[in-house]
Design brief:
The structure is a homodimer of 124-residue chains. Chain A has one domain (21-123): Winged helix-like DNA-binding domain superfamily/Winged helix DNA-binding domain (Arc Repressor Mutant, subunit A), CATH 1.10.10.10. The longest helix of chain A has 32 residues, at 92-123. Chain A is built from five helices and three strands. In chain A, strands 1-3-2 form a three-stranded antiparallel β-sheet. In chain A, β2 and β3 (85-90) form a beta hairpin. Chain A is elongated. Chain A has helices spanning 17-25, 30-40, 45-52, 58-70, 92-123; strands at residues 42-44, 74-79, 85-90. In chain A, 25% of the residues are buried. With 124 residues, chain A is of the alpha+beta class. Chains A and B meet through α1, α2 and α5 of A and α1, α2, α3, α4 and α5 of B. The structure holds a DNA duplex (20 and 20 nucleotides). Chains A, B: Keywords: DNA-binding, Transcription, Transcription regulation. Chains A, B: This is Transcriptional regulator. Chains A, B: Residues 16-116 form the HTH hxlR-type domain.
Chain lengths: 124, 124
DNA sequence: CCGGATCCCCAGGGATACTG
DNA sequence: CAGTATCCCTGGGGATCCGG
């Protein structure tokens, strides 16, 4: 029976899949933007801005969208009009991630009370 | 009839569950340490250090362990000996999170090739 | 052996102004 | 409208030293 144990050398940043996932989605906005597009399928820049909540800066929204696009989670359609019109749409790859995030979210929702209680106890 | 749409004000950091989860686990080490303890159940400080891979500083390991403990994901047993001995063990709450992280990890493993290909294409 | 206390550095991210 | 370009600042995290 093979060991399931993961060798130490495999836990570094390049080989450890958990780290890979965190490095990619540990930032402030990626998941949020992805979920918004998962819900609405297709949105324009300003619409995403509204949906996310207006506390994201234009700069960070742009940066986040570019990264999601580079990874293949969303794709971008540019309409050569004036004023410009750009639509963002979630890809199949992006869609495939959404349920996992949703599961985590559900876990968080149902366990957050316990966590908060634990934090309270810990403070004392 | 109330909108199903999530109001902007509900997406802020305190009310949005996704953000809550990210704020808690978006840091560099929490999930990694939790997974290590999920596998081994019970470990001493230095053992965790070894398992995580020695690229975590003592300070950050301490900080991470305190946060996990405060949230109720692990608990700590101090043996009043000299030299000191401290054991960390995952709780049921902690265990309940592990499968979700594993699912995300599996997703990452199977989709990382596609992501990397997408990144290559995007560079050009 | 465990981990607290300090110092320091840098990258993520905000605010603002500007443009095709 | 959908960005780009700058400037700036905060805090996460590393290195090091010390102490029970």
């Amino acid at each position: 029976m093979m060991e399931k144990k993961i060798k130490k050398s495999e836990w570094d940043i390049t080989n450890c899949p958990v780290r890979t996932v965190l490095d990619r989605f540990g930032d402030k906005w990626s998941i949020l933007v992805l979920l918004v597009l998962g819900e609405k399928q297709k949105l324009r820049f300003n619409e995403i801005n509204k949906e996310v909540g207006s506390d994201i800066s234009q700069k960070m929204l742009t940066v986040t969208l570019r990264k999601l696009e580079a990874d293949g989670f969303i794709f971008r359609t540019i309409y050569p009009e004036i004023p410009p019109k750009v639509e963002y749409e979630i890809t199949d790859l992006g869609k495939s991630l959404v349920p996992h995030v949703d599961n985590l979210t559900k876990w968080a929702v149902s366990n957050m009370p316990a966590i908060k209680r634990s934090r309270e106890r810990f403070k004392k």
